[in-house]
Amino acid sequence: MAPGTIALLAAGSFVMGLLGGVLGVGGGVFLVPFLVFAAGLPAKQAVAVSLCCVIGTSAAASRAAASTGAARLDLALTLEPALVIGAVAASSVAARVADGAVLIGFAVLMAVIMGLMLIRRRATVDGEPPPLTPGRRVALSVAAGASGAASGLFGVGGGVLVVPALTLIGRLPLKTAATTSSLALMTSAACGGMVYLAHGLLPPAIVAVALLGVLPGGFLGSRAQRRLPEAVMLGLFMALAAVVIGLSLWRGLRS
Amino acid sequence: MTSAPGTVVAATTASAVAAVVALVVLVVAALWPSPGLARVGLGLLFAVPVVRNSVVVWRARGLERALAAVGIVLVVVVAAVAFRAVLDPTPSALPTSTP
User: Fold this and answer.
1) Which of A123, A225, A235, B5 is the most exposed place for a label (fewest CB within 10 A)?
2) Domain range annotation of chain A
3) DSSP A37
């Protein structure tokens, strides 16, 4: 790789990690569009690189969350098999479809995330969560399977879908849901990434540079998040998501 | 069933250390291009959840330990299939193209 390319990739990944951390949606949501539209990577390789970055950010975020005592490792381990099955099945399909279809699907996912961001504030639960009934565990596993599929298809962490599921179905407080999601997503991202690797869609040099940017960016973004008003965060996310949807549809429909 | 805080901290610390080691190997492989080292780096990165779950298996008891073991088995099965395809000498499974 040329030094200029390395600098662009590292700086861009840092900014995307920062944005993902500030907006609480994880780095993948913005990293995939950056790798496709700015760095010129094919969509499926961008998804694969993003999944590898999710492993790193998830490891860092879950270590930070463990200190707070809010993370539910038991629940994360319960969701793991469904997340892995969803991610492996979806990435096996995604590795075989055209890049344009992946981009159109990404635009649809961004629209869903926009809707979830709007309802996320209402999903906050106060006080001690009720015990998880078997029915709720099954419903959570189904939601985890869908989140794993979204992760495997589009390279996003899946937390944008797991967190609402944990708050709405599991009735967990938002902080516990977010930290539990960080713990759970690492395994599905690893399995999804390995499927792309098996299909020859994972460039290790780009993974290294992207990880170098995303990790510090995500860390700083999470710290900055506490200082930003929620209305500003929501407005910023909606504006960026609208741009990403427009670009993804434009490129997806043309290819 | 809620995890002991010590188990969560130990498991997440181990996974964070594994991720840092993987990143270092990947960076070295990117600076001095070597497909073998790149595969090792990716293997280490994909092993991060295995490291975490191994600590849980070691320190936890009961259902939590069983769930962690299931997670390890899932990752190992997917890894066996994926790396068999990568190590197949016919097609190169590690693209070297740059944007």
Assistant:
1) A235
2) 3-254
3) I
Interface confidence (ipTM) of the complex: 0.86
Mean pLDDT of A169-193: 85
Q: Which of A13, A37, A63 to mutate to test the interface with B (most CBs of B within 10 A)?
A: A63
Considering only the C-alpha atoms of chain A, give the largest distance between any 2 of them, rounded to a whole number of Å: 55
pTM equals 0.88
Minimum-distance CB partner of A39 among B3, B29, B99: B99
- Residues A196/A69, Cβ–Cβ less than 8 Å: no
pLDDT means over runs of 10, chain B (99 residues): 76 92 93 88 95 93 90 94 77 54
Is the CB of A74 inside 8 Å of chain B's CB atoms? Answer: yes
Q: Which residues from A are below 8 Å from B95, CB to CB?
A: 45, 200-203
**Rounded Cα distance, A198 and B36, in Å:** 15
Q: Do A204 and B94 count as a contact with CB atoms less than 8 A apart?
A: yes
Query: Which chain B residue has the Cα nearest residue A9?
Result: B99
Q: Give the Å distances, CA to CA, from B81 to A31, A139, A181, B88.
A: 27, 30, 27, 11
Which one of B1, B7, B8 would you mutate to disrupt binding with A, by most A Cβ within 10 Å of its Cβ? B8
Residue in B3, B30, B98 nearest the CB of A208 = B30
DSSP A158: S
* Structure-token pair, residue A224: 């900055």
The residues spanned by each domain of chain B are: 7-87
Angle at B63 between CA B60 and CA B66, to 5 degrees: 80
3-state secondary structure of B89: coil
- How many helices (H) and strands (E) chain B has is answered by 4, 0
Is a pLDDT exceeding 80 seen at residue A122?
A: no
Residues of A in contact with B92 (CB under 8 A): 200
Q: Give dist(CA B92, CA B89) in Å, integer.
A: 7
